């Protein structure tokens, strides 16, 4: 919306009113007709198509036309010599030299490679966690001399290829995980169900400590450790971590508090045992030993001093 001042300027845009008693200015002389191009003398019927093409290009003079024709001829010769796409050349010592800059220039002009990578119109894939993908992809496409019209297709093709590769990788990981799980079930035997329950508890505790673990992170962890080591680690965390349970695990950590802390710990263990929170497996696996240590700690703390 215009301001009052600009609106007033717009309203005053007509011719100024004539001042009484003055002679209106003389009309301007007619404009000089445009100069006729050098191609205007090409008036034969067979010259019409070429004349119209040159006129459309509006070359300033025959020299500019000749120079452009020479540049095109040079570029065409360069492309023919390199059989089209400019490639590196191998040096005698085995290293590679970059393509001829003239060949690159000719190729880019011929197929429509943009001047800079940011001129590519590459769509960002949906749900892509890497916002710089578009920029990095554009840089590599520009290095390769990819035409602007081809870039979006290649970018989508790359995403599709990566997606297929990830799908196959996941399928292979799933197959390995399933096979390892069967083997682990055989080696754990009757303790399989109980240890898996502890492993689930250990995974929950680890996820809580890490601020959450998604499927990809858990899959990566299993892949790095291997399935047996991953599940064994989760089992031991679930069975031995005091924040996951009050079980001692295979090697419970020693108690370092005083008699009062030992009494509180013993009371908690006995309450959990009565409530069924500590299984027989946990009890035999280390909790029973801890109870004995706690009882000794309490007894020593209550014993009268010597002498």
- The helical percent reads 55-70%
> Oligomer, anyone?
single chain
pLDDT < 50 stretches: 1-20, 31-35, 242-253, 302-307
Number of strands: 2
What structural category arises from helix and sheet content?
A: mainly alpha
**Main β-sheet, in a few words?**
2 strands, antiparallel
Enumerate the strands of the largest sheet in spatial order, edge to edge or round the barrel.
1-2
Average of the residue pLDDT scores:
75
SS summary, helix count: 11
Order of helices and strands: HHHEEHHHHHHHH
- Intertermini distance: 101 Å
Radius of gyration: 42 Å
What global shape is seen? Answer: rod-shaped
Q: Could you explain the architecture of this structure?
A:
It is a single chain. This protein has 307 residues and is mainly alpha-helical. The chain has a domain at 192-302. The chain has helices spanning 4-11, 48-57, 62-81, 101-111, 133-143, 151-188, 192-210, 215-225, 227-240, 259-274, 280-302, and strands at 89-90, 96-97. It has a two-stranded antiparallel sheet. A hairpin with a 5-residue loop joins β1 (89-90) and β2 (96-97). α8 (215-225) crosses α9.
